[in-house]
Predict the structure.
Amino acid sequence: MTEIRLIDPGDRAMIRPLLAEIHHHYHGQMMPEMSMERTLHDLFEERSCAMLIAVEQDQAVGLATYAVFQPSTDGGGTMFVKDIFVSAPARRRRIGRRLLIELLDKAQSRGCNRIDWTTDSINEEAQLLYDRLGAERVSTKVFFRVMSRDYPAFRDRCLES
């Protein structure tokens, strides 16, 4: 049986392997220990976002990270989902869908007016799932990014008159 719930301080050690798997999935290498500790600090001490985990037999097999942002058009907030990830051995068992349902329930109970998320442009499997579920592809928004290596130059351009 898979349990979906918010992380708590006792989950720190349990989510380490899943965080390492995510890092390897996206970057093809082991997660540096400094990055792992910063991530755990952000989750547990800073509480920079919330995390749902899917747990089977005391092992984290999936997660969804999210935050609710204000202001919004109706005051209910916008939920932004950063990641929905299921461990490779646990895929195709509807765990991702269960995480999505829990996110929907949380957004609804908070009065959020919408849920937004992104996928990598090459993640066709996830896009097909979201299309099948009826999520709306948004073409009216443009996604921007500044990488850390570019912070100094970006800051300089912000200060230019």
